[in-house]
Amino acid sequence: MYPNGSVLSLVLTLHSLELPETSIYPAFIFGLTTYLFILLCNVTIVVTICLNRNLHKPMYILLLNMPINDAMGATNLFSQLLYNILSQDTSISYPACLLQGFIVHLYGGASYVILTAMAFDRYIAICSPLRYGAIMNTNNLVKIISGMWLFNFAVIIVLFSLFLNYKICQTHMTDLICYNPSIMKLMCEDTKVNNIYGLFTLVLYHILAFSVVAFTYIHILITCVTNKQSDAKNKALQTCGTHLVVFLFLEFNTLFPLVAHRSESVPAYIRRMFSITVFVFPPLVNPLVYGFKTKEIRQKILTCFKSKIHSV
Asked: What's the CA gap between 288 and 212, in Å, rounded?
């Protein structure tokens, strides 16, 4: 048992990838290439929106939060994972583990609240276009962005503050990264309170996001059916289709590993595999989906790319 006073110097051991020696460098190169490509895609979206005044609109300002969040989530995973692969050292201090777990859940929660805010924006734009400018003005936009991040921070801070009163009985982690379910398995005492609050936050984010998305999409669909302008229909469906693809993809990548962690029937290697996919596939797919499917962003990227080629 490790008392509260010694946890700051406590060193934990993450689960190893158990790579053969011949696979270490190929795995490191593949991981580094994947991470750099994720950064390139997300930074491209951020720079494109920031440098083009035509994209300084509520829809794109809300979208700007997504690549920033995705880059944060990917960096949180790959910085530790690439070090572990190259050095074959899976140790991590307990405070660093808590920080990594905090960022893991902050990233996951932010993904949902960002998509929820974007769904609300599309609902106002399509169902109440004449009031859009008044509702989504600069003041309200700042309130929405500040509110969603403060809400997310508050929920996750409470989740991890619950660990402060527990004593640790073991130092071997069962996962490749630190997050709430894996950290709870280190504790000596009953972690029922943490488990209940963890499930509460899981249900809160999913129900909140699903309810808002379902409500907005039903009303958007009704508006599109009753709207006789085919151009308006096509534009609305294209914009919402992109958002829906990203939302459903996130649902699949987050719901299964979190539920699987609480089920003994799911093999451990499957839990470990899915525990890292949420930090790889959404940050990789999201900028590609929004970059290629959103006409305004796609045109700005292509224009910039062509100008760079001509200048060479």
From this structure: 24
Residue 137 dihedral angles phi and psi, to the nearest 5°: -80, 175
To the nearest whole number, what is the mean pLDDT of the chain?
Answer: 83
The first and second tokens of residue 269, run together, are: 């290697």
Q: Could you identify the residue written with the tokens 């130092």?
A: 171
Check: pTM over 0.85? Answer yes or no. Answer: yes
Measured from the Cβ of residue 139, the count of other Cβ atoms closer than 10 Å reads: 8
3-state class (DSSP) for residue 298: helix
HSE-CB of 216 using CA atoms within 13 angstroms: 25
What's the N-to-C CA distance of the chain in angstroms? Answer: 64
Which residues lie closer than 8 Å to 28 by C-beta, 6 or more apart? 82, 85, 86
CB distance 63 to 87 below 8 Å: no
Question: What distance in Å separates the CA atoms of residue 279 and residue 285, rounded to the nearest whole number?
Answer: 11
